[in-house]
Amino acid sequence: MQNKIEHIFFSNGYRGGASTFINDHINHLIKKRKNVSLIDNHPNKTYDQLNKKIRLYKNTGDIKKIDKILNSGNSKKFLFITNYAFIIKYYFILKKFKQKNNKIILTLHSGLLELTLKNYLAGLLFSLIYKNIDFLFFGSYSAKEWWHKKYPWMKIKNLPVFYNGAKCQKIKKKKNLSKKIIVTFAGRLENENNPIFFLDIANQILKTKKNIFFNIYGDGTLLSDLKKKYKKRNITFHGWVKKKIIFKKTNLFMITSPVNNYPYVALEAKSHGIPVISCSKGDINKIIKNGIDGFIKHTDSVETMIALINKVFRDYQYFSHNSYLRSYKFDINTSCEKFWRKIKIENNNLR
To answer: Tell me: the pLDDT tens digits for 197-219?
Structure first.
């Protein structure tokens, strides 16, 4: 009977934390022998490795096609979304979807990073219709606080928070620093991630040290200008590459966004024994333990960040080993299991 339930994941073609979150949950459900489908603008481009057992649908912007995918057939469906704007854009399709006793799951992992008038009004509209969602969860407490602060009439105080997880890697020995040290930034090159701060740190370090190399992975609207402005031999822009390549070529991760609710990149770095330094506010402080497996310091000072980098490099094996050991606290299988167990319990209560 369980196999007749279809789990449909609906994403918007952006590579990052949300797509990793979806991919992890797809793999978890496939292991449980569930029927899984994925709708995305460019599924094979958005996701590094997709399980061959899922059905793929490309979202071309055709509303009728989305309607057909969601509302055809008689099987019971669970629709999994991580983008609140979809609730607005596909409102009437989703209303029809729910009339068939199907269920909608939405996870919110952040607030609105660019609070323009347009975005605020979209969030406002969502705050008035969010009760149409059957299961609304948050990816961090900081994200939940943001929504409650901006739209205080939303009754979300008792809604659950589920943290992401990462696959624990099999590492038998501590990482060692070689003569060539690599510091990495990975994420979309947008103002909210503040890649300029990372590059300013790199510029300052390279004035005195030539054995440190800075890799920037990701694309975005700032990519072209940053490549022109920061032309140095030891600074390389790689665009998007497979994650295993990033972690293989990294000694230290840096996260320079002012706010980062609960970043996948920090979890994944730790699982490879890679320390993380961040200047971000948010639930990232649940991941990094100061002086143990990295540092968090809310600062915009280049000198302060360089001092933290030097502290990690002076006792690198200690930080690397602790990063790997503490990654087991964030196991992806445990995270997914808790999430879907909650869905099952609440779904039974709705009957």
So the answer is: 999 999 999 999 989 999 999 88
Q: Return the CATH number of 181-330, one of 3.40.50.11220, 3.20.20.70, 3.90.550.10, 3.40.50.2000.
A: 3.40.50.2000
Beta bridge partners of 7: 36, 78
Q: What is the 3-state secondary structure (H, E, C) of 213-267?
A: EEEEECCCCCHHHHHHHCCCCCEEEEECCCHHHHHHCCCEEEECCCECCCCHHHH
DSSP 314: H
* 3-state DSSP assignment of residue 212: strand
The C-alpha atoms of residue 128 and residue 232 are separated, in whole angstroms, by 50
Which has more pLDDT, 256 or 48?
A: 256
Cα–Cα dist 21/2, whole Å: 23
Strand partners, 57: 39
Task: Assign 96 to helix, strand or coil.
Answer: helix
pTM, rounded to two decimals: 0.86
Express each pLDDT in 29-42 by its tens digit. Answer: 999 999 999 999 98
| Class (C level, CATH) for 2-165+331-350 | alpha beta
Contact 18, 82 (CB under 8 A): yes
The 10s digit of each residue's pLDDT in 64-110 is: 999 999 998 888 999 999 999 999 999 999 999 999 999 999 999 88
How many other C-beta atoms lie within 10 A of the C-beta of residue 142?
A: 23
Distances in Å between the Cα of 71 and the Cα atoms of 4, 59, 80, 162, 283 are 15, 15, 15, 29, 37
Torsion of CA 74, 41, 88, 156, to 10 degrees: 90
Q: Are 254 and 296 in contact (CB under 8 A)?
A: no
What is the C-alpha separation between 239 and 215, in angstroms, rounded?
10
Query: How far apart are the C-alpha atoms of 120 and 110, rounded to whole Å?
Result: 14
What sign for the dihedral angle of Cα 172, 177, 180, 182?
positive
Q: Where are the domains of the chain?
A: 2-165+331-350, 181-330
CA-CA distance, 238 to 240, in Å (whole number)?
Answer: 6
- Fill in the amino acid letter for 268: E
Instruction: Quickly tell me which residue has 């269920």 as its tokens.
Output: 103
